[in-house]
UniProtKB/TrEMBL annotation:
Coiled coil: none annotated. This is ABC transporter ATP-binding protein. Keywords: ATP-binding, Nucleotide-binding, Transport. PANTHER family: ABC TRANSPORTER ATP-BINDING PROTEIN ALBC-RELATED. InterPro entries: AAA+_ATPase, ABC_transporter-like_ATP-bd, ABC_transporter-like_CS, ABC_Transporter_VariousFunc, P-loop_NTPase. One of its GO terms (molecular function) is ATP binding. It comes from Halobacillus salinus. The keyword NADP does not apply. Residues 2-232 form the ABC transporter domain.
Length: 240
C-alpha cells in the first residue's frame, strides 16, 4: 500500500503541491491525471525520494520514504518522464549497472535481461551506446532496467510515450499482470483512453490539489452517466 499523507511542496514563488493525500491499495492499477503544471511530476518525485517533502509523509508498504530511504526505494521501480539518461553507456552496461545497484544476482540478471529486452525488441542493440537509440528504444531500456529487481511498486511517469503499438500493448499487459499478483502500478498519463482501459482507480490533480479519487464507475456516477473520461477531466480541471 502507498499512503500519501497531507504532503506539501513549495518552490520559490509557487506552491506546487498543497496538503495532498492519497491511498493506493495493493492489487491496483492507479491512474494519476492532471493538466501540465498540476503537480503530477512533483508528487511522483516526492514519492520516489528525488525531491524532499516539505510537509507530510509518504510510506511505501509501511516504509517512510524520508526516514527509511533505502528500504522504501528497494520496493520501487520508477520510470521517469524523460529517458535521456546514461547516454554514454551501452545498453548492456546500463542494465548491469542497475542490476548492481539493486544487488540482482548474476544468473537472475542474465535471464531477466534476455527476457525483457527480447520482449521489447532491443536485445540486438544491447552492445550499442544508448545515445544512438531512438526515443522509443531509450524508453524500452529504462523500463527493462526498472523491472530487473522485480519491485513491488511500479511508479511510471508517462510510461507509454514513444513506445510502438506492440511494446505499448506488452507493457500494458505487464501492468495488468503485476496488479493481478497483488502489487501496485501507479502511473501518470495524458492518454485518457488508456486510463479507461487499464485503471482500477483514478486520481485527478489540479493546481496541487486532488480534485477526485475513486474508480471509473464512481467518477461517472458523481457527474453524468453519459460523459466520457475526457469530458469529466475537462470539467474537473476547467479552472486550471
Amino acid at each position: 500500500m502507498i499512503e500519501i499523507n497531507r504532503i506539501t511542496k513549495t518552490f520559490p514563488g509557487k506552491t506546487a503541491v498543497k496538503d495532498l493525500s492519497l491511498t493506493i491499495p495493493d492489487g491496483k492499477i492507479f491512474g494519476f491525471l492532471g493538466p501540465n503544471g498540476a503537480g503530477k511530476s512533483t508528487t511522483i518525485k516526492m514519492m520516489t525520494g528525488i525531491l524532499p517533502i516539505d510537509e507530510g509523509s509518504i510510506t511505501m508498504n509501511g516504509k517512510d520514504i524520508s526516514k527509511e530511504v533505502l528500504a522504501a526505494k528497494q520496493m520501487i521501480g520508477y520510470v521517469p518522464d524523460r529517458s535521456d539518461i546514461f547516454l554514454r553507456l551501452k545498453g548492456i552496461e546500463y542494465l548491469n549497472f542497475i542490476a548492481d545497484v539493486y544487488d540482482v544476482p548474476q544468473e537472475v540478471r542474465e535471464t531477466k535481461i534476455s527476457e525483457l529486452t527480447k520482449q521489447f525488441g532491443i536485445y540486438e542493440a544491447l552492445d550499442d551506446h544508448i545515445q544512438t537509440y531512438s526515443h522509443g528504444m531509450k524508453q524500452k531500456i529504462v523500463v527493462s532496467g526498472v523491472l530487473l529487481h522485480d519491485p513491488d511498486i511500479w511508479i511510471l511517469d508517462e510510461p507509454l510515450t514513444g513506445l510502438d503499438p506492440k511494446s505499448s500493448y506488452m507493457l500494458k499487459e505487464m501492468m495488468r499482470d503485476h496488479a493481478a499478483k497483488g502489487k501496485i502500478v501507479f502511473f501518470s498519463t495524458h492518454v485518457l483512453e488508456v486510463v479507461e482501459q487499464l485503471c482500477d482507480e483514478v486520481a485527478i490533480i489540479n493546481q496541487g490539489h486532488v480534485q477526485f479519487q475513486g474508480n471509473m464507475k464512481e467518477m461517472k456516477q458523481q457527474f453524468q452517466e453519459d460523459q466520457n473520461l475526457e469530458q469529466l477531466f475537462l470539467e474537473l480541471t476547467q479552472n486550471g
